[in-house]
Amino acid sequence: MTGAMYAAIGGLKSHMTKLNVIGNNVANVNTHGYKAQRMTFKESMYTTSRSGSNGGVTMGGNNPSQTGYGCSVGSIDLNMSPSTFAPTGVGLDCMLDGEGFFMVGNKIEYDIEEEGTPGEADYKRTVTGSGITSADQLTQPDLTRVGDFWVDADGYVCNRDNKVLYGFARVQNPNYRPGASKKEIAEQKALGIDIESKTIISTELVPLRVPLSAAAPTKDNGGIVEVTDADGNKSDKSLWKEGDPVYPYLSAAGENRYPSYKETASPVDEDKADSKAAPGVTQIPVAQNTNVNRVSDEMPVQLRNMKVGTDGSVTGTTVDGQTVVVGYVAIATADSPDGVTHTDGPYYKCMGGAGNLRVSALVDLPTSYLGNQVAPTKEGDPEPDAADAILREKTTKVRNGGLEASSTDVANEFAEMITTQRGYQANTRIVTVTDSMLEELVNMKR
């Protein structure tokens, strides 16, 4: 007889859990990027009082007789389908119109060792520390659907929890050849090498940061050079202007070094960079210095009207009207987006149940693999890991000037709340009736 009471208690616990889920959904009805949860019930265990049997020649069979012991929580699922767009009017606010997540995390710490005298040919800086160069590192950042970004004092694109946004940064092209002929450009392009563009997109995932601001050009930092005209007259020429954006450059993997000042490329004359790209070689983007006292290591360019474009580009305008592309937002996708695990607040991790995590871009990249790896062009070249391939996302777009609204459907939650309350009341009735029957049983001996 007490089995009914235990079944009712199981029902009470399960209905209370569902009410907790409903309460959380309703509480987050105005939380940007919130994904509503859904709870399902499942039957609990059964006891068998009589087994079933098949019929014979002279007798019929019988069905099994079983008694259940209530219900339990079946599953608590996330509905990761895109929600509606909520305009905010903030240029760097954005939402993903489709599946996927933004990748946010901590800033990368670089260890810098200096040798020689700044401004001299023997000056060298060794930099250790890099971004994400392979698929096995993708789980380090947090995943989120909330695109409430801003630029902090150090020039990093961060969300309101001060987690930096990861993406593909725009860097100087180490293969750039000024004045190259169309034939040379075509020949190198056939080999997968771009010698025409001054800047390219690095496929190493790094925290997006506004380019550094060039200091005033001087002869010491290589910003002013002596030129001779056709008549033999000599004069000084500035290679850049103070405040020009200084994009980072790519150094060969394993070196992670800054070239000496005599080899350092200026923001305008990038062909002086001594690092050359090679097929199959991973390259690391590191910031470049243009000043003896390293002012440009600390001063990002001041940008106006910053926004995130539909292609994921983070752009802004300098004081003198130059358009600067900081980089492109990376989109992370899981094999099973409904299976991601909530960690804290609006953040998720790709853990058990979500499958593999892949990264994609909304634009065509110069290489198809993380870490600037390229497919082999000849026999013997290293073959990149297939998991490092960057997907070209064509179904998801970025919408700027707003955030993703909560996916909570208040009308549905209220209806679920009513049925849950009635179910809870019914289970309490079972407890009351069972108690009355037990009381009658105890009173029989009187």
Write structural notes for this entry.
It is built from three helices and 31 strands. 15% of the residues lie in helices and 31% in strands. The radius of gyration is 32 Å and the shape is elongated. Strands 7, 10, 13, 14, 22, 23, 24, 25, 26, 27, 28 and 29 form a twelve-stranded mixed β-sheet that branches. Strands 12-11-6-30 form a four-stranded antiparallel β-sheet, with no helix packed on it. The chain has a three-stranded antiparallel β-sheet with strand order 8-9-20, with no helix packed on it. About 10% of the residues have low confidence.
Question: What would you say about this model in short?
Answer:
This protein is of the alpha+beta class and 446 residues long.
Search tags:
single chain; 446 residues; alpha+beta; 12-stranded mixed β-sheet; 4-stranded antiparallel β-sheet; 3 helices
Q: Summarize model confidence as the mean pLDDT.
A: 81
How can the largest sheet be summarized? 12 strands, mixed
Q: Structurally, how many domains make up the residues?
A: 2
> Based on CA inertia axes, which overall geometry fits?
elongated
- Uncertain runs are 251-296
Helix content bin:
10-25%
Rg estimate, integer Å: 32 Å
Number of strands: 31
Question: Please, how many helices?
Answer: 3
Structural class: alpha+beta
Strand content: 25-35%
Distance between the termini: 20 Å
Any chance you could write out the topology, listing elements then pairs?
Elements: H1 2-27, E1 37-43, E2 46-50, E3 65-68, E4 71-78, E5 85-87, E6 93-97, E7 101-105, E8 111-115, E9 124-128, E10 142-144, E11 147-151, E12 157-159, E13 164-172, H2 182-190, E14 199-207, E15 212-213, E16 224-228, E17 234-238, E18 245-246, E19 249-252, E20 257-258, E21 283-286, E22 304-308, E23 313-317, E24 323-329, E25 331-334, E26 341-342, E27 347-349, E28 357-361, E29 391-392, E30 397-400, E31 402-404, H3 410-443
Parallel strand pairs: 28-29
Antiparallel strand pairs: 1-4, 2-3, 5-31, 6-11, 6-30, 7-10, 7-13, 7-25, 8-9, 9-20, 10-27, 11-12, 13-14, 13-24, 15-18, 16-17, 19-21, 22-23, 23-24, 25-28, 26-27
